[in-house]
Amino acid sequence: MIIKSLDKEKMMKNPEKISEMDRREFLKIGLVITGVFAGGSIVSVASAAEKIFPNGSIAEKYPYRPHYCMVIRVDRCIGCRRCVEGCVAANAVPSYGWRTLVLEREARQAIGQKREFIPVLCNQCNNPPCVRACPVTATYKDPQNGIVMMDNKKCIGCKICLAACPYDARYYNEERGAVDKCDFCFETRLSRGEKSTACQAACPADVRVFGDLSDPRSRVYRLVHQLQKPVWVLKKDTDAKPNIFYTKG
Amino acid sequence: MGCPENSSWTGCLKDAGRRVFSGGPVYLFFLGLFAALLVAGVAAGIHSVYIVGSRHAYGTTREIPLAMLIATYTFFVITSTGLCLVSSIGHIFGVERFMPIAKRAVLLSVITIMSGFLVIGLELENPLRLAVYLFCSPNFTSNIWWMGVLYAFEVVLLILEFIFLLLDKHKASVAAGLLGILFGIAAISNLGGVFAMLNGREFWYGPYLPIFFIASALLMGCAAVIFFTVLACRVHREGLDGRMAESLAAIGKLAGLMLAVIMFFTIWRMVALAVGGTHELLVRDALVSGPFAFNFWALEVGLGMILPFALILWSAGKRIGPIFLASALVIFSSFFVRLDMVVAGQIVPLYWELGVREYSKLHAYSPTWHEILVVLAGVGLTGAAFLLGEKVFQGFREVEDAGSHFAEVLEDAAQEPPSAEKGKVDGSP
Would an 8 Å CB–CB cutoff place A74 in contact with chain B? Predict the structure, then answer.
């Protein structure tokens, strides 16, 4: 029903003049996809896929082009934290802050492997609570690629975005005079023609897979659009519709 | 007493200055003390934000970014809205017993909201950008944006209401006051919404806080009116006259009612938390038996609810002494109510449910001296402005009293005499 309500031709011909309503409809569809796979439930994936895939062009499924996302294959992570170092080096992250972390979970009762590492970063949510909360649009969802960006000169330092973010992905950067966060290395790499993020490039175990979720040829597309392995997101209940997916294998 | 030989601004100001300096040693001591707190707090805030950096000077962290200064801001603006609401009961809605407190309540409403703005101004990292981008780059989905704009309007309306009250322009003051109430309630519920619409924070999320803030505002308004009116009598070294005593007794009864409402809010809040999710249970435990237990049981429940309620009952709605004490306790306690509400909403790590090593303990917050000094700057501004206001406006006596010369000057200014004739008007006795 959502897809039918869109004027597809109009939007594809003139993507920069998409009306607010059309954009919202796009967004809803993107959210459906994200939300469904986020659940990690094979049943829900199948049922939603039946609704979405037969109808759709890429634009109908995802609101951004490219629709950047990251798939994290947690069981491959060895906890070396080179991704964190790569991020710090690429983005001049100060010692008191972080854009990405590798969390460590210990399960002493587990058989075999007793430790697990969970990389976390900004989830570049489709429905970002930080963007809604910011009073001066200093943080915003990039209309082209969906990355949650910062406009440093506008940041008033109220830090409500820190409180709003369900992923603890923000901190106040004294040197920038603004809140800082992961931008998928847009400023330091993607905007300069590179295709990967610093954390992905630094990872020796190919844990982090970065790419365009709207491109069926991309690795992230294939990792997310499959039924064999569960795919999940963190803190799904907040309904932020994150774009960081977790899987194994 | 009264203006000197003419009614010019300078004459009135000189006269007001004389009244201030002849206020006696105790008055001047407290005026100096509050002024010193204001200066020290502003200096501490500037030092924190612009010299050493708030990361070093304030106790806030990435995990608990909103803390004592935000709590203080909410404390002041909730009080301001409450004062606006309580003042309106008399001079807008015509309840006779609430009329004597109207002028003082409106002035205090302006003072407390300015104190709130002062504290938030020393909390924000880049307050000057706010002045620019609040208008140049608004985000209409942001509660903070709405709150900022609505409070800005409310300040203007409160000042207009106060001027019209001084001029005894009843219709204009009612219009300004009515608009002030609307903007005030919208602003305060948006302040609640700042917290209540963060669905990643389970303790805050939901419609509870905006409604609770409005109820709290009424309680705080009552308490502040009683507290400052009794203090004003001390300032003027006079007893409460019969009409004012009746008014305070009536406000005391309303305070008792609002205390009961707040107690029910709190009871049901805690009951609801008991059946909430993991985050809510952790917060409830922290409040009931954890690091916030003293604040919750002793300062919030004991000093802020049970004791003041008992005092109001004991006063039988007549004796001002217990009502004054109850008001002082409510004001003192409500600071900790705000502080606990703000901080407790952030103590549970956002990745708690992952069971990871890095987020296996509740976050902790301790205020720094810089933060405490900034809080005292707000207290200093309120205290100093109250004391000055009492002398400048001479206890808000009726028109025929000497204290209304400011009203006369305002009235003259409102008539806008031609400049050529101004000398004549100013020179008239």
Answer: no
Per-residue burial over B211-230, b if 16 or more Cβ lie within 10 Å, else e, is ebbbebbbbbbbbbbbbbbb
Chain A (200-239) residues lying within 8 Å, Cβ to Cβ, of chain B: 234-235, 238-239
Q: Tokens in use for A187?
A: 């400023």
Architecture label for domain A72-202: 2-Layer Sandwich (3.30)
DSSP classification of residue B393: T
Q: What value does the mean pLDDT take over residues B282-306?
A: 96
Parse chain B into domains and list their residue ranges.
Answer: 1-58+369-417, 59-367
Report pLDDT digits (tens) over B1-58: 445 445 677 888 888 888 899 889 999 999 999 999 999 999 999 999 999 999 999 9
* Class of domain B59-367 as given by CATH: mainly alpha
Cβ pair A138:B133 closer than 8 A: yes
**A135: chain B residues, CB-CB within 8 Å:** 130, 134, 138-139, 142, 144-145, 148
Nearest CA to B55 among B141, B125, B147, B145?
A: B125
Check: CB of residue A142 under 8 Å from CB of residue A181: no
Nearest to B139 among A118, A136, A171 (CB): A136
Using a CB-CB distance cutoff of 8 angstroms, which residues of chain A are in contact with residue B358? 101, 103-104
Which residues does chain B have within 8 Å of residue A97's beta carbon, measured at their own beta carbons? 62
Q: What confidence tier does B403 reach under pLDDT thresholds 50, 70, 90?
A: very low
Q: CA-to-CA distance for B157 and B142, rounded, in angstroms?
A: 23
- Cα–Cα distance for residue pair B91/B162, rounded to 1 Å: 11
Interacting residues of A40 by C-beta distance below 8 A, sequence separation 6+: A230, A231, A232, A233
Prediction ipTM score: 0.89
